[in-house]
What we know:
This protein is of the alpha+beta class. It has 2 domains: 4-201, Ribosomal Protein S5, domain 2; 206-379, Alpha-Beta Plaits (2-Layer Sandwich), CATH 3.30.70.890. The chain is built from 11 helices and 12 strands. Strands 1, 2, 3, 4, 5, 6, 7 and 12 form an 8-stranded mixed beta sheet that branches. Helix 3 packs across helix 4 (151-166), helix 3 packs across helix 5 and helix 4 (151-166) packs antiparallel against helix 5. The radius of gyration is 21 Å and the shape is globular. The site of alpha-D-galactopyranose has 10 residues, from helix 5.
Amino acid sequence: MHRIEELWSIYQNKFADTGLKKGAFSAPGRVNLIGEHTDYNEGFVLPMAINKGIFMLGQLRKDRMVKVYSIDYDHLLTFQLEELTFDQENIWVNYIKGIIAQYRKSGYDLTGVNIVFTGNIPQGAGLSSSAALEVVTAYLLASLHEIKMSAVEMALLCQRAEREFVGVNCGIMDQYIAVMGQADHALMIDCRSNQAQPVPLSDQGYSIVICNSKVKRELVDSAYNQRRNECFQAVTYFQQKLKGPVKALRDVNLVELQAAAADLTEQVFRRCRHVITENERVLQAVTALRANDFPEFGQLMIASHLSLRDDYEVSCRELDCLVELALEKKGVLGARMTGAGFGGCTVNLLKENRVEAFVKQIKAEYQEKTGLVPEIYCSAPSNGAGKL
Length: 388
Ligand code: GLA
């Protein structure tokens, strides 16, 4: 990671001082502990911010130009505030353009800006590097323009940028946790009310270990939208069938689902079963964590993985392999795929004193089984976006 002084010196090599307001900011990646594919069903999720992030420096300009230098791509791009077109070649800049477009759409009169950024969140690994880029950009622009907005408003603005500009129909989880993460806490987000409760998750002899399968999530966008549609299809059915109001799968329980089995396709039935049981598991996981019942938390993670694998069908051979290998290891309480699926990472809960052995064994065994070299990261729950 670049130290802040180094980043400023890279900045000064690229840009002249405009004499206007400047600042340095960061936003983290995230790992979701439990509650997968529940956010767009207005359910519950329990992510934590991780100790990897995006670091961005910027200064306002007197004109209407935006100049962005990506240190990691060693690429400088320039565009006008009024000229926000999708860039097919430099995908990364679209997250920045998307945020600017949303501020403008909300009526904020932005001026030009010079930006330099770098990051250490692995891309395409399901650790939300894109949400971090959106959030750090939103944070920088809000700070430099002295725009006051609540954390939830900022998360929603970033989600709209991703949906409308980048074209990925995501839920709120990734942007929310990148804004609101708290050190030593996971965050239980109610994706209907958009309210969150921090749940203490500090050391106590257990560690969160993330295994990157190194399978890039290629299918993810089309399969993601397909899963969403299956859920929405079920909602339309339940709206006609049930007496109470049904806005999302959040409003349907297991008994109601079972009673509808004959009317739904077997596949849609399983999708619903995942969402309904996963919401339940998040609530149980929060109770377990508050009671320091880590073994129970681990069991819920395992059940979540099986449900994602068999009912929601968003796992893949490599993720299953990582989970199976993990569960054979001493001191492992739980393991599951995390994020949208089809590749990316697993998240594991294990005894801290077993981490070293775990890392060594998983690396060797996963490579032997798949030919892929995994990357493994340990992270305590970290803070959300902030000033550096
Ligand atoms: C992606 C989306 C999130 C969420 C997860 C699955 O990360 O961006 O909104 O839906 O997948 O839980």
